[in-house]
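Researcher: Next sequence.
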Amino acid sequence: ETGGERGNRMNFKIAAHTDIGIKKSANQDSVLMKAARTDYGNVFFGAICDGMGGLAKGELASATLVRMLSQWFEEEFPNLLYQGLSMETLQKSWNRLIYEANDKIASYGQALHRSMGTTMAVLLIARGVYYIGNVGDSRVYCMKKKLTLLTKDQTIVQREIDLGKITYKEAHQDPRRNVLLQCVGASPVIEPDYYMGIVEPGMMFLLCSDGFRRVIAAKEIYQSLTPYKVFHEQTMKERLVYLTELNKHRQEADNISAALVRVD
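Model: Next structure:
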C-alpha cells in the first residue's frame, strides 16, 4: 500500500483551544485549522503562531502570518499537490512565504516603532505523509503509543543543551529559557526547520504554543490525550480545555494555545 493510497482514505477529527491566560492583557497566539477534500484524498493543514511585541503588536504579527498561511493553503497548495507534492517543493514554497511574512511584519514594526515577531509551527498532512515547518519554540508532537516531540525549539537553551553546556533539568530554570534564536518578523535571516514522516491510522498530532507545555509534564499531556481513549472531537476539545485550565491553575503566565488532529 502506497502513501497515496493510504492518504486517499484518511479522515481527520480536529479540535483547538486558545486562552489569554491569567496575566496577559491580550492573546498574542493565532491558530489555524483547515481540512479539505481533494482528488488525492483528504488533506489537513494547521498552524500555531505565538506573537511577541507587546499588546496588539504580537497579535498583529501572529495574525499576519496565519492569514498568509491560510491564503497559501487556498491558492498555492492545490497546484503543489497536483504537480506531485514533495518536501523539496513544499520547502521552497514555505520558505518564500516565510521570507515574505518576515519582511511584511518587520515593516509593520518599523511603522509602529516597535520590534515584533512570531513563532510558527505548521503541519500539513497529505497522501499519507506529514510535513512540518518550524520557526521558534511553538511545537508539534505526535501520539500513538507514546508522546513524541517532532520539532526542536529554536532557543538559546536548546542550543546550550545540544552543545552539552546545560542539562534539560537546568534548562527549565535557566533565565534565558524564553529567548528565541529567531522568529518571523524580527530576524534579519530566517532558517526554518523542516520535518516529514509517515502517517499511521490512529495517530494524533498536537500543535501548541510554549504556554501550553511549560508547567505540565509530557506524561500528563499523553495521559489526557492518548489516542486509545480520545476518539471524538468533543472529547478532544474537552481535554484541551482541561489541560489549559491545569496550566492556569499552576500559574502559567503566558497565553495558552493548542490544536489537535486525529487521523483515522
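Model: The first strand starts at residue 12 and ends at 19. The chain has nine helices and eleven strands.
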